Amino acid sequence: MIQRIQSLFLSLALIVTGSLFYLNMADLITASHSLILKYKGLIDLADMSEQVASSLPLTILLWVATVLLVLTIFLYKNRRLQLRICGLNLGFHAGLSILIFYYGKFFAKQLGAELSFNWPLVLPLVSIVLMLLAMRGILRDELLVKSLDRIR
Q: FRET pair for 76, CA 20 to 30 Å: which of 102, 107, 125, 141?
């Protein structure tokens, strides 16, 4: 059922992951420019419409992780598949955190900028914790159904 506790955990993970689309992940300051790292890439603060550099793998990974979370929420009837996709999504969220860190360091080194990461760097890790809690609930439900099948 959709009202299970793991659906709540997965929904919270979706909100946390979806917020990465709107938040600045890192600030880069050079001698002449002030730049921010968003999910699309590096953006100049002077002209918000101008994208300085692209981070396509980060964009793709964020979209895939978000779509998989939505899919996982609505797979409540197939607990085994829900558990597998949730485990796959754990890896994607770990990759998100690594890619945010990598692109911040890469762009800072390339531009000779001073880098400061913002708090959204930890949001994929928060989503990982929420997905682990959801996986525990899914596994508990699966074990309960198996034990009831043995009794019949």
A: 125
